Amino acid sequence: MWNERYSQTEYAFGKNPNDFLVEVIQQIPKGIVLCLAEGEGRNAVYLAQQGCQVTAVDASPVGLEKAHKLAAERSVKIETIVTDLADFTIQPNSWDAIVSIFCHLPPNLRANIHRQVVSGLRSGGVFVLEAYTPRQLEFKTGGPPNADLMMELTTLRQELDGLEFKQTAEVEREIQEGLFHQGHSAIVQLLAMKP
Question: Which structural domain, as residue segments, surrounds residue 11?
Answer without folding.
Answer: 2-193
